[in-house]
Structure formats: structure tokens, C-alpha cells
């Protein structure tokens, strides 16, 4: 039903990031933008069921919201300094060098950099991005991150207050800051995706609304910065991971990559992801997300687990280690080594990593990897201890189910 | 434009050469900070700034009662105290943060950036 409340709310959410971005530019204030957007929704819910959804709903909502905001600001102008400033700042002239469409895109990019500003706390960056660009409600974001709605509301309010008071700018960062700032935005999108893909807490092991939102925002970012290979790399990585989502959990239990039904993978997403990997690697400016995407491309290229080109995977992890020499990357590399050189060689590497990086002790994948290698070597009692250690620090329900079953199967 | 306080946080207990390690290192830090100050004056960001003497020279005054109460020493017993500060006038937080990064490098300390309510 195109004119139903649910359909209108869907359109509103699709258009929300664009709407807020444009209103923030015009009025210079996030609260005014949000209030005006909310009023525009009320008007849409009144009018659209009869008139139908207009051909350009985004433009309709922006015009309606801006008019409402101006009316309100004029009424309040004499009372309130902030509102007087907003009226004075009000700018409805398109940017000189940009057409309407580019202006629109430009606004959303600015808003993304504001929401992901390094002066904001990391959890606030995530919340603000989902609220202002994703159009999720505070309640939805609170549910996704398993915190009380009031806590999430306060987190968002506090961040918005800091943006206004400390003057976090609404602009594309200077060229000298840009690589660092793009990377901050990518981190936020990756964290949103991961929270959806490997959810913590007792709820559903996968929250598809978060993975979908991260992909939608990554697509927008790529359309805004097509020349940034890491942006393309992140989108490719998310698509190639999302493609395996359905096959990854069966009966509430995690299914490991080599046990997954490859017929259940989404071939369309894989084809798109592969094309993006080729595209960004051709630019020859490798980065973390591009290499992670390339590793996922190797996996999704193999018709069976046995056909995986493990030498290629290990070589890519070597490259990743040069970019990001973290123990977690080294641990993942060891998994590839187990396939190339056998579990004994890999176990020696994993144990050495554990000694060099005590922080791995609190990371469930470290124990789960050890447990699996010990199991394959027939060292059952040590494997059992390692499964216990993994279970003690794992907080995803599907992974816990998998680890418990494996532990129970040891002889 | 917004006024920002850039405060330098350092150890409450100062060693000889003010925790710079050596006389040369201390003099180099002073020279770098001086050069930074001259630059932000020339660029128009400077409002005010200076280094503070040791926290042992501080006195806390509580004038809320009938007669003011004086207490020797800083307000909080803490391992880190403000050793010096700038007040700068900058168009937005990105500019303030960039100046703070340069200030931190020059003075060899962490710098907190905090906006004033209205103009200082």
C-alpha cells in the first residue's frame, strides 16, 4: 500500500539522512533540523494517504520541513538568541559551484564526518550515525546495542550538545586530515556491521537490520567518495560477508566457513563484491579493508572448502600484517597456515602469539582456534580446556552453541 | 569564532628541569613553545596564554561563608594538574584540535581543548 502509514514511514526513513543533512546546512543546528523533519513527517502522514506519495518525496519533505522550521523560527525569533541566529544563518541558495544533486550529496557527506568526528566518543559516533543518517529511532538503536532507551537517548543528546557547544564543524575535512577522518567513518560503519553480524548478548545471533544499514551507508559513502579505494574496499568486504549470512547460522548454531552450504550464498552480492575488489585493487593503494575484502573474495571464489586457495589467503594475511601488525591478524593468518602446513605448525604459531600478546586471552577466537587445532591433533583434554576458555569469553549465542557442541563431541 | 581553553596537563610533582629530563630538553621545549606562541599570535588565534608555577604555590579560597577560608595547595589532590594554558580564538573545533596537536608537540604534554561559554 503506497499510502499506508508503514509505507510513508519507510519513505521517511529512506530519505531521513538526506533531509537532516540538508536542514543542518540550512539552519546550522541539528536539533532544529530534527524537529523540522519530525513536523514534515506529521504533515506527510496527514496528506499522503489522500494525495499519494509525491514523485519526489525527498524534495517534498525538505521543502515542507524547511517551511515549518522558518515559520517556527520567525515566531520565536524575538525570544531566543539561538533561533535568531538560525534565521540569520538560514541559507537556501544552492552552493555556487554545485548543482542541486551535488549539493545534496555534499550535505550527507558533511553530516557523516560530523557524526563520526574523532572528538566524539566511539559509541556516540555509532549512535549518531544511525540516528541522523540511518533514520533509526532512539528506541531501535537502543535495542540494537542492548542498552536502555534512556541511556541511548542521553548518549545522543550529549553528543549533539558537544557538536553545538564545541563547534564540531559541518564540513568536508581538510585534505591533510581527510585520510584519518575517512578511516574514522569506515570504522563506524564496520562496527555497526559487526554488531549486526556477530551480535553480543542473549538476543538473536544476527541482527540483519544493522548489517543492512551498514551496507546502505557504505553504499552512500562510496557514491560520495568513489575515488577512495578503502571506501570501496569496505563496501566489498561488507557485501562478501553479508552474502554468507544465511548460510552462517543453522538451527541457532554457528556454521563455520568450511561447513557452510555454499549453495546458500548470495551469488549476486558475491559478484558485486568481486567486481568492487578488482576495482579498488586496480588503484594500487592497498589498505586494511581492501585486503580483508580480497581475502573474502578468495573464500567466496572457491566452489568447495577444499578448493580454497590457502596460499593466496596466507599471502594476503602477510600483506595485512604489514598494514596492521595486530595479534588478531596474526591469529587469522595461523588459521590459513593450518590448512597449508598442518595443524601442528599452526598451533605452535598460535601458542607463541598467546605468549607474546596476553590480551588474546580475553578474545574468544584465540581459544576457539586453539581448541580446533588441538581437536584435529587428537589432544582431547587440552582441546576441552580450550573450548571452556572460549566459552567463558564468548558472548554470541550461535557461537556458544557451536563451541558447546564441539566440546561435547570430543572423545 | 569560538574561544577555546587549551590546558596542558602534567604531573603534580615536578622534578628538576620540570620533568623534561635534561636542561637541554627543557630549553628546547621552551623554545618550541615560544615559536608556537609567536606563530599563533601572527595567525590571529592567540587570546592569552602562559605557564603556571608549581602547584605548591597554589592557594584555594572559599569565600562562600562569612569569612573567606584559605587552604594551602591545589583544590584537588591529584597526580595530574594544569601546568599552563592558552586561550585561543578559532572558527571551529577542527582548527582548535589542530592547534592543540601542535601545542602538545611543542610543550611536551597532553592538551585538553574545551570551549568557553560565550566569548572569553
TrEMBL record, chain A:
UniProt-listed Pfam families: DUF6596, Sigma70_r2, Sigma70_r4_2
Keywords annotated in UniProt: Sigma factor, Transcription, Transcription regulation
GO MF: DNA binding; sigma factor activity
Xref: SUPFAM superfamilies: Sigma2 domain of RNA polymerase sigma factors, Sigma3 and sigma4 domains of RNA polymerase sigma factors, TPR-like
GO terms classed as biological process: DNA-templated transcription initiation
Domain RNA polymerase sigma factor 70 region 4 type: 112-163
Domain RNA polymerase sigma-70 region: 14-77
Domain DUF6596, first and last residues per copy: 181-279
UniProt keyword Transcription, yes or no: yes
Keyword Transcription set for record: yes
Family under the similarity heading: Belongs to the sigma-70 factor family. ECF subfamily.
PANTHER family registered for this protein in UniProt: BLL6612 PROTEIN, BLL6612 PROTEIN-RELATED
NCBIfam families the record matches: sigma70-ECF
Name of the protein this chain belongs to: RNA polymerase subunit sigma-24
Source species of the chain: Nocardioides silvaticus
UniProtKB/TrEMBL annotation, chain B:
SUPFAM superfamilies the UniProt entry points to: Dimeric alpha+beta barrel (SSF54909)
Pfam families reported for this sequence: YCII
Gene3D superfamilies recorded: Dimeric alpha+beta barrel
Domain YCII-related: 22-115
Signal peptide boundaries: none
Domain of life from the UniProt record: Bacteria
Family: Belongs to the YciI family.
Record-given protein name: YCII-related domain-containing protein
